[in-house]
Design a protein that fits this description.
heterodimer; A: about 525 residues; alpha+beta; PmbA/TldD fold; 2 domains; 10-stranded mixed beta sheet; 25 strands; globular; disordered N terminus; B: about 450 residues; 9-stranded mixed beta sheet; 6-stranded antiparallel beta sheet; about 40% strand
């Protein structure tokens, strides 16, 4: 390790000892020997694993901080801060993984838990059928921090509460708005990784997730509608709350949810769809992000999330979408929730094509998945959501590239004779091999003869992944590109949460099946 | 290791001793968790986690603050209390504050088995190896997940309550797939006592379903009579189970809201043979002994004889409405008031319909009618003239759960079985029956296997 704890915190943009740092987390963490401790602990783990016969081992010593504030109308419902500190050791013994973890971070406990990880691997290895192999990764000794400017954990709670109450007031300006719920969540990951390859990597990541939901109710008829925020989570600091027009969107949401109560219920049928990035990111996540995970393609997720229609024989051959369609996986994208310097086994963040000019070309991989396709290196997709969780393959940021020309929303709408423009994410569901999906949204606008003519409700579209992307015949330009994302994408056994972003321009799709989701209960 | 009652009390006493707040609720949880995951007939990941957590919620001049930490040394515990107090001091008044509970008396529910807390590594490896061997023999590739969790937790209040409880759960889910990818079967079960988990039944059922679901034929989407196996019911109820909140219903934003600002309590919304209740002391499904931060749990009927009997009142909403808070639910049991039917009887009594083993990726489409969308997965069969005829391709559905259980749509109800939602991986369970229903709406085909 070449960097001291103090240097690392400076790199991370955290002012050590400053009065703006009220958090007890740093007080309890700022032991002078913290870095030396971690290196000594790492030495203890890796030497124990080696002595017990592990061919590879790594240790992650991580601290997580969470802050959550939630409000409704002019009331604060919750203000809480929590933290979790501990370590997890992974050992590969005779081609079998073992993992053990503990919250007690001492050399004795590290040695005990490392022996336990090897013992678990040893017990299972007696029955192992196909030994696990891993591709090499270069030795790295470094530190890395995310692209945030203003650490949200340094911003006074009172400012955040006032922000949310002001937002709620803006949302309730329109007569007819019944309720508003709003929240902000912040996550800080302080991660230390040491591997038996010799890597020692310390990273500091920040994620921010403001959100709100506005509800309008017609008590006479028993009807109600909701409108949730379009601005999603980002790997940014508190500057995200200051720069994104949250108050403007909240006021707009209030107007829209009231209008939604009176909007025309959609007539089911085939429509051309124009999809805004605040909506389309989720369709990308489900229909492109998940099927390009190699663990799914190889049936590793068969018992839970499912497999993938993108089987190994389809690489370089399958026409995934129209020629306009290019999907890039990227763990280096600024503000991307899955952006990282290095993954949880020391592989650097990278950028690569998953779909190029409409053809499926590659998967997301880890060090134990890459050899199964004869690949010599990993794309760096290993991640665990806690020190106590086993790292496993997780999705990088996966984004649809914008068109080269400065095509606008109006340009895309102009050529639609009978269509629907959709903003925001609603209901979402997709099958276990990622063919058949159905998505709702937040606001829907009817397009007739190239013009937006009014609001619709009860809209969901249903399609098949390759049919849908094959029907994409228009992409907005770079000026329409926005980043959306999921704060808690669940996968794996035991289920773990991953945060991931998806960027895209506005895009147009021809003749997609639209359902009316309203059902009258008898 | 799990905290004993004495150790847990020592920590909650410390936390309460540190606080100068007007009121406080503190808790400590300890957990051991282990898992073994396998896929493509090979061992994948396997691990163990030991953790403890201390949580502090305080009120200062009716202002609330909360903090938690997993570092339980005195300095960290004290820091957590100070952090919660600091947050309370800068927060606005908590208008939903209800004083914490005074001393309560609990009737234990016996949801803990020592053997579940200490699963021997070799026994578990052998059990999974046996599943892989059976799969190899049958020519299928299996994936699955064995997990065991034990916890001991305690909550104490500044007003004098103390609630300590130990719980455990073990589950095994297995998916078997034919090597050509044409057939897939799934089976999941759980119990609090590992000696009651029948791993060979889980393996056998998954493999049988994989082999019997091969070469599925394509049927048109549409409205079909269905027989839903308990797993399929669990997958739907996993969503429906959270819809009984009184406040949402009274505020006009739930499927149980009625026109004119009223609720549907007292209305016959379901078939009159359906009871839905929570019972903390069911032998196969012990619930927690407490609910809502320490309220002693009791038997609560949500639906009785098809009538919406109760909605769930939080302590705050109950106080606002001048009524008692609801002492549950701590589990969900759906049971018939009449003689239950077996799955075979349901099949024999079906002229034409679909037998559904499981649903997947279920999401709410319209909360006004509890309409859900999702897909069938791992086995759908056409039943005709009282017999299973052949497997059929999967479907997407869009179906109101209220309409599904409404009078006139429920034909037969089975014996409730302990089963958990497959999206929940067996981490929780309910007692649910198979159901024979007159109409269920499938809206498109899915080629996924």
């Amino acid at each position: 390790m070449t960097t001291s704890r103090r240097d690392f915190l400076k790199t991370a943009g955290v002012a050590l000892g400053a009065v703006t740092l009220p958090s007890w987390v740093f007080e309890s963490e700022a032991r002078a020997d913290a870095v030396a401790d971690k290196n000594r602990l790492a030495d203890a783990a890796l030497s124990t694993a080696k002595r017990l016969g592990a061919s590879y081992a790594d240790i992650r010593i991580n601290r997580y901080r969470f802050e959550a504030i939630s409000t409704r109308e002019q009331q604060v419902q919750n203000v809480s801060r929590s933290q979790s500190f501990g370590f997890g050791v992974r050992a590969l013994y005779k081609g079998t993984w073992g993992f053990a973890s503990s919250r007690i971070v001492t050399p004795e406990e590290v040695r005990r838990v490392t022996a336990q990880a090897v013992e678990i691997a040893r017990a299972n290895s007696a029955f192992q059928r196909k030994p696990i192999q891993i591709v090499p990764a270069a030795k790295v000794v470094t530190t890395w921090k995310g692209a945030f400017q203003k650490d949200p954990f340094d911003v006074p709670i009172d400012d955040k509460i006032q922000f949310l109450l002001k937002l709620n007031k803006a949302a309730m300006k329109t007569q007819g708005v019944g309720f508003v719920n709003s929240a902000m969540l912040f996550v800080n990951e302080q991660k230390f990784l040491a591997t038996s390859d010799g890597s020692r990597i310390e990273q500091y990541l920040i994620r921010s997730f403001p959100s709100f939901t506005v509800t309008a109710i017609n008590r006479a008829s028993g009807d109600f509608q909701t409108r949730t925020s379009f601005g999603g989570p980002q790997a940014l600091g508190y500057e995200y709350l200051e720069k994104y027009p949250w108050l403007v969107e909240a006021e707009q949401a209030g107007e829209e949810v009231v209008a939604k109560l009176k909007a025309k219920s959609v007539e089911p049928g085939k429509y051309d769809l124009v999809l805004h990035p605040s909506h389309l990111w989720l369709t990308i996540h489900e229909s492109v992000g998940h099927p390009t995970e190699l663990d799914r393609a190889l049936w590793w997720e068969a018992n839970y999330a499912g497999t993938s229609f993108l089987t190994p024989d389809k690489r370089g051959k399958l026409q995934f979408g129209s020629k306009l369609v290019n999907f890039v996986a990227d763990r280096t994208q600024p503000a991307g929730l899955a952006t990282t310097g290095y993954d949880d086994e020391g592989v650097p963040g990278q950028q690569w094509h998953l779909v190029k000019d409409g053809v499926f070309v590659d998967w997301q991989t880890t060090r134990d998945l890459a050899p199964l396709l004869g690949q010599k290196k990993s794309y760096g997709c290993l991640y665990a959501d806690s020190w106590g969780s086993v790292p496993f393959p997780r999705m990088p940021n996966v984004s649809l590239q914008p068109g080269k020309e400065a095509v606008s929303l109006d340009n895309l709408v102009n050529s639609v004779d009978d269509g629907i423009l959709i903003y925001g994410t609603g209901s979402y569901s997709i099958d276990q091999q990622r063919y058949n999906f159905q998505f709702g949204g937040q606001t829907f606008y009817e397009i007739k003869k190239g013009k937006i003519v009014g609001m619709l409700r009860d809209v969901a579209y249903q399609s098949r992944t390759t049919d849908f992307w094959g029907a994409c015949d228009g992409l907005g330009g770079p000026q329409t590109y926005q980043l959306g994302g999921s704060f808690n994408d669940g996968k794996g056994e035991p289920t773990q949460s991953n945060a991931v972003s998806h960027g895209c321009p506005i895009a147009r799709f021809r003749q997609i099946n639209v359902l009316n989701t309203a059902v009258r209960a008898s | 290791m799990l905290l004993t009652e004495k150790e847990a009390r020592a920590i909650t006493d410390k936390l309460l001793g540190y606080t100068k707040a007007d009121d406080a609720s503190v808790s400590v949880t300890s957990e051991t968790y282990s898992h073994l995951r396998f896929a493509a007939n090979s061992f994948l990941t396997s691990g163990r986690r030991e953790n403890m957590n201390a949580n502090v919620v305080v009120w200062v001049n009716r202002k609330r603050g909360a903090a938690s930490t997993n570092e339980l040394d005195e300095a960290s515990l004290r820091a957590a209390v100070e952090e919660a107090e600091r947050l309370a001091n800068i927060s606005p008044v908590d208008v939903e504050y209800v004083p914490t509970l005074k001393m309560q008396t609990y009737k234990p529910t016996l949801g803990y088995a020592e053997a579940t807390a200490n699963v021997p590594l070799v026994d578990r490896a052998k059990a999974v190896s046996d599943i892989i061997s059976a799969s190899e023999t049958a020519g299928v590739l299996s994936a699955g997940f064995h997990q065991a969790q034990a916890s001991a937790s305690a909550t104490a209040t500044k007003n004098g309550n103390f609630d300590y409880e130990r719980r455990s759960i073990v589950s095994l889910g297995t998916t078997a797939r034919t090597t050509d990818g044409a057939g897939s079967g799934y089976f999941l079960r759980s119990h609090f006592d590992i000696s009651r988990l029948d791993t060979s039944r889980i393996s056998r059922e998954a493999i049988r379903r994989a082999l019997e679901s091969r070469n599925a034929r394509v049927l048109d989407a549409g409205v079909y009579p269905v027989i839903l196996e308990p797993q399929a019911v669990a997958d739907l109820v996993g969503f429906f189970g959270f819809g009984f909140d009184a406040r949402n219903a009274e505020e006009g934003r739930s499927a149980f809201s009625a026109a004119g600002g009223k609720t549907r309590v007292g209305e016959k919304i379901f078939d009159d043979r359906i009871n839905i209740l929570s019972d903390p002391w069911r032998a196969d499904l012990p619930g927690s002994q407490s609910t809502q931060a320490g309220l002693p749990a009791e038997v609560v009927y949500l639906v009785k004889g098809g009538v919406l009997e109760n909605l769930v009142y939080s302590r705050f909403w109950a106080q606002k409405r001048e009524r008692q808070p609801t002492p549950g639910p701590v589990n969900i049991i759906m049971e018939p008031t009449s003689q239950p039917a077996t799955l075979d009887e349901m099949i024999r009594n079906t002229e034409r319909g679909l037998l559904v083993s499981r649903f997947w990726y279920i999401r709410s489409v319209d909360p006004r009618t509890a309409t859900l969308t999702g897909l069938t997965r791992d086995g759908v069969w056409l039943v005709e003239n009282g017999k299973i005829q052949y497997p059929v391709r999967n479907f997407r559905f869009n179906q109101s759960i209220i309409q599904m259980l409404a009078p006139g749509n429920v034909e037969m109800i089975g014996t409730p079985e302990r089963v958990g939602s497959s999206e929940g991986q067996g981490g929780s369970a309910s007692l649910l029956p198979a159901l024979k229903l007159k109409a269920f709406k499938f809206t498109s085909q899915s080629e996924a296997v």
